[in-house]
């Protein structure tokens, strides 16, 4: 995959500066390989730095809009009259029209004051725009490779049980390992990120001329999932010891399917727990709560204070938020199992 225009620009600007340091960062190199991000470490670091610099400049520019003299938000705010002094100044102009001086602020009213921008907000603006935003941008951009590697690892563990079953079926049909990995690579829509690693193995064997054991060892180093690492290491051990890959694939397929059933069982148990708590928290509790609130509202004159606005807020705001929260929990939990 070619670099994007932005990545090429960043590399031309700072690629040479980060080249030595980025290539010495083994963790970054491993994350790029496991994340299947086809770029050199210096390109990644240059992109991270330039992107962070641009975001920092935008953040500082946004803060500067508040502090620019005369035309900034703060100066415009502080040039306006304080609403609390409008009535006294109006009365002063009514009773003392001969003392009005239009050349002075507020026509010379002694009670005239302008609004004051809160100092806390000034400090907060500078802190957010000058410190928090740049730091968050750096951490987010710097951790992109690690997040992608983790995402690929999670997806591989979802698809590997089915891919292992497929390899067992292909091996039972006396297909060679190269044909098995080629077939896996051609079915990315079915086996997801496992197909990418299979494609790399097939490329190493057919295009680069490596033998199967060497290609497996290379795949062990770039596998993003522990399960896939064990799968490739087992293949290396089986081939080195002269074992049968057919039996190995069958055993691995059975093992991964058991692990997958365990994982799905835990997911169903968590959903069942959410369902039980939903009945209590989102169905039963609101009924009792509404009854109690209505009674408290009726007897509010005898000690318990409950306003009508608070009652509407709880019924129309708090209770629906419980259902929304549970919907979000179920949705996020289900997305983790989405394939």
List keywords for this structure.
339 residues; mainly alpha; 4 domains; 0% strand; flat
Structural description of this entry:
With 339 residues, the chain is an all-alpha fold. It has 4 domains: 88 residues; 34 residues, no CATH class; 112 residues; 77 residues. 77% of the residues lie in helices and 0% in strands. It is flat and about 110 Å long. The model has no long low-confidence stretch (mean pLDDT 87).
Outline the low-pLDDT stretches.
none
Kindly report how far apart the N and C termini lie.
24 Å
Please state the CA-atom Rg, rounded to the nearest Å.
Answer: 33 Å
Q: What's the domain count?
A: 4
Quick structural summary:
Helix content is 77%, strand content 0%. It is built from 14 helices and no strands.
Secondary structure blueprint with pairings:
Blueprint: H1 5-24, H2 26-34, H3 41-67, H4 73-78, H5 86-95, H6 119-142, H7 144-172, H8 177-185, H9 188-191, H10 193-206, H11 212-222, H12 226-241, H13 245-298, H14 308-336
């Amino acid at each position: 995959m070619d670099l994007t225009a932005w990545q090429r620009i960043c590399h031309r600007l700072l690629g040479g500066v980060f080249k030595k340091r980025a290539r010495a960062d083994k963790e970054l190199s491993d994350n790029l390989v496991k994340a299947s991000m086809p770029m050199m470490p210096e390109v990644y670091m240059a992109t991270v730095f330039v992107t962070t610099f641009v975001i920092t400049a935008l953040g500082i520019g946004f803060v500067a809009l508040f502090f620019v003299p005369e035309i900034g938000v703060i100066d415009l705010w502080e040039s306006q009259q304080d609403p609390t002094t409008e009535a006294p100044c109006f009365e002063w102009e009514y009773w003392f029209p001969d003392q009005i001086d239009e050349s002075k602020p507020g026509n010379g009213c002694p009670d005239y004051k302008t609004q004051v921008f809160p100092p806390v907000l000034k400090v907060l603006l500078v802190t957010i725009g000058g410190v928090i935003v740049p730091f968050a941008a750096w951490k987010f951009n710097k951790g992109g490779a690690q997040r992608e590697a983790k995402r690929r690892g999670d997806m591989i563990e979802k698809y590997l049980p089915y891919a292992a079953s497929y390899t067992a079926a292909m091996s039972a049909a006396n297909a060679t390992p190269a044909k098995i990995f080629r077939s896996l690579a051609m079915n990315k829509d079915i086996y997801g990120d496992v197909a990418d690693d299979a494609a790399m193995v097939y490329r190493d064997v057919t295009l680069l001329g490596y033998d199967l054991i060497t290609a497996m060892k290379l795949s062990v180093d770039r596998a993003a999932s522990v399960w896939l690492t064990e799968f490739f290491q087992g293949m290396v051990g089986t081939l080195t010891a002269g074992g049968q890959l057919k039996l190995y694939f069958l055993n691995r397929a059975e093992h991964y399917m058991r692990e997958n059933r365990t994982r799905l069982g835990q997911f169903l148990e968590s959903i069942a727990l959410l369902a039980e708590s939903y009945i209590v928290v989102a169905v039963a509790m609101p009924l009792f709560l509404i009854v109690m609130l209505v009674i408290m509202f009726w007897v509010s004159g005898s000690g318990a204070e409950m306003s009508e606005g608070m009652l509407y807020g709880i019924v129309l705001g708090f209770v629906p938020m419980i259902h929304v929260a549970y919907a979000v929990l179920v949705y996020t939990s289900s997305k983790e199992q989405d394939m």
